[in-house]
């Protein structure tokens, strides 16, 4: 009986090691498919401009800067909403809610910004960042086969990556955020990859929320540029006008 237990434990250990190795292997293939870690890390700033359809046409832009700075603009009918994270705090300008002055955001409200501020993404140096990656096997996305990775971030949030088995690029991401005892779920469908400074980025993004089925946005990116000079002050909350 003791021998049987030892054998079972050994088999389970080997299985766990194989799973971990497979996850690590898929991460490596994904990063290589994106352009390789060296080229990814060579990008210090990233600027994106494009269009969004959310029941009405909008103009969107996003700027990222290493380390962990991000600013997003959303413009409709001449009014622009701004949300930003400067590496320490999040702030916003919300004219659609009648607020034209910049104001600080609560930590739960800028959770998405803080996670998107990582210009490399959670898979680059994931162990050093305190993230955990597991390979969950095969799944299907719109009827097509995909590899599924579960990425548990250091803060406890979970991102499920679905990788194309031919290119190893992400074709879908599903996120679960755990906020004040509740779960916030969202999905991104990714496509139309193009190379910028040797790194592949999606130029077509469909975003939806499981909590609010009507909350759906279709993004079409017109232009992405790398290493455009951006001052740190661009990401900091401006002083309120008196």
Describe what you observe in this structure.
The chain is α+β, with helices and mostly antiparallel strands. The chain has one domain: Lipoprotein localisation LolA/LolB/LppX (outer membrane lipoprotein receptor (LolB), chain A). The protein has three helices and 13 strands. It has a 13-stranded antiparallel β-sheet with strand order 6-5-4-3-2-1-13-12-11-10-9-8-7. The longest helix has 33 residues, at 2-34. The radius of gyration is 20 Å and the shape is globular. It starts with a helix and ends in a 16-residue tail after the last strand.
In terms of topology, how is this protein built?
Layout: H1 2-34, H2 37-41, E1 45-53, E2 57-65, E3 69-76, E4 79-85, E5 90-94, E6 99-104, H3 111-116, E7 132-141, E8 144-152, E9 158-163, E10 170-179, E11 182-196, E12 199-209, E13 216-226
Antiparallel strand pairs: 1-2, 1-13, 2-3, 3-4, 4-5, 5-6, 7-8, 8-9, 9-10, 10-11, 11-12, 12-13
């Amino acid at each position: 009986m003791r021998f049987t237990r030892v054998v079972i434990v050994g088999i389970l250990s080997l299985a766990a090691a194989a799973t971990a190795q497979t996850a690590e292997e898929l991460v490596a293939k994904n990063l290589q498919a994106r352009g390789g870690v060296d080229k990814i890390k060579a990008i210090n700033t990233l600027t994106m401009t494009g269009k969004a359809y959310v029941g009405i046409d909008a103009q969107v832009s996003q700027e990222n800067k290493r380390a962990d700075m991000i600013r997003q603009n959303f413009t409709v009918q001449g009014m622009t909403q701004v949300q930003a994270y400067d590496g320490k705090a999040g702030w916003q300008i919300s004219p659609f809610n009648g607020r034209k002055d910049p104001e600080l955001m609560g930590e739960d409200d800028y959770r998405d910004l803080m996670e998107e501020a990582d210009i490399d993404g959670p898979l680059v140096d994931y162990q050093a960042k305190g993230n955990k990656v597991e390979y969950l096997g095969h799944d299907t996305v719109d009827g097509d086969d995909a590899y599924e990775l579960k990425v548990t971030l250091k803060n406890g949030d979970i991102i499920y990556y679905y990788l194309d088995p031919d290119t190893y690029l992400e074709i879908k991401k599903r996120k679960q955020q755990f906020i004040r005892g509740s779960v916030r779920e969202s999905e991104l469908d990714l496509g139309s990859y193009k190379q910028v400074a040797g790194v592949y980025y999606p130029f077509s993004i469909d975003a939806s929320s499981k909590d609010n089925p009507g909350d759906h946005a279709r993004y079409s990116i017109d232009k992405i540029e790398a290493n455009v000079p951006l001052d740190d002050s661009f990401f900091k909350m401006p002083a309120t006008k008196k």
